[in-house]
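Question (not urgent): is this output format expected?
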Amino acid sequence: MSSNLVKQKNDDTKTKLGDIYHYYVVLSYCLDLQESETILVEKYGDISIVSEEDSKNLEVKRHQGEHVLNDRHIDFWKTLLNWVKYHHNMRDFKKLILYTTSNFKENSKLKSWNLVKAHERLKIISEIGHQKNKAEEGFRSIYEAVFHYDVEIILTIIEKIELYTSQTDIVEIERKIMKNSFFKSVNKSDRKSFVDSLMGHILTCPVDKPHKWEITCEDFESLACEIRNRYTTSAGGLRLPPDIGDTPHDEERYKDKRFVREIKEIKYDTKVPSAILHYWQAQESIIYSSMNNPTFNVDLKEFQRDIRGNLEEFKSSFQDDCDETDPQDIILKSKRLYNKAMEMPVNNFYSINPNRPYFQKGIIHKVVEERGFSWNIIKS
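Got this back:
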């Protein structure tokens, strides 16, 4: 599309990036969950960790590029007002955390926040609002709403608040997640797919009844271990690359290969498209699966020998029952040989595990292509 298109008013990409960032933060905390802890999403704010030892409530703020959290910025003040307003819900949380990609100005009064006690914090926020400016961009109404509440309530809340500024942005938080020790047993090339799978689970948690967005430590560990097993070398050496697509990009170049000519020779042209697809998928799997598993190629050679042996046995049985003087019978029996080969049971073979129908069929075509096997019954 043209690069000169006008940005629409309803282009909400940046907002959605903020949502995605929020879910990455959820995932990062899921990876650190301890036994019996639970994460609640969007119930008491953005993220809540329910724990006997370390309960906390987080508000997540993400800004594009460099961003300064000045003393009157609504990210801080709206968050403070929400915590004060719903102070009854905050009683069981030991920490109230503002988690933001923004950073402080050098002269910010808030910069010392995490280093001082509640009464000093009260003094800081009081002084910030002491001077009235001409343009306060909504600050004054929020400030007055905070101090509408009893000072003891405010003190109880601000005593718990911690400001996590200069947090990594969306690309870096993904990288940080993939460096978590949980991913060490997963090949680096698979970690992005693994994270995407975990994110998918987090996003769909509230879909089923009773529509609660809750993630327990036990449930997350069970799910994460199940997904991780799909990606670890010990769980199997056969996988297609992620996002491979449904058809080869250069399908035309396969049409003159030997395995295609063999199919056409027995007048089974309807089988050519699926043969090309399976051959291509098998080739892609071989490249992807062998990158981090040196035993895969060794097992693959043995597997191809076994496949070739099975094909020769099938062919011999059809030869015994074929009238080699009848061209039509030769074609008929050759087609039956082809069908029997494609219906061969799909069994695991060492690191070719789990074996897949597309892979085994692709290997059969590789045997035809590279090892001289012919579908024609009367050809040796």
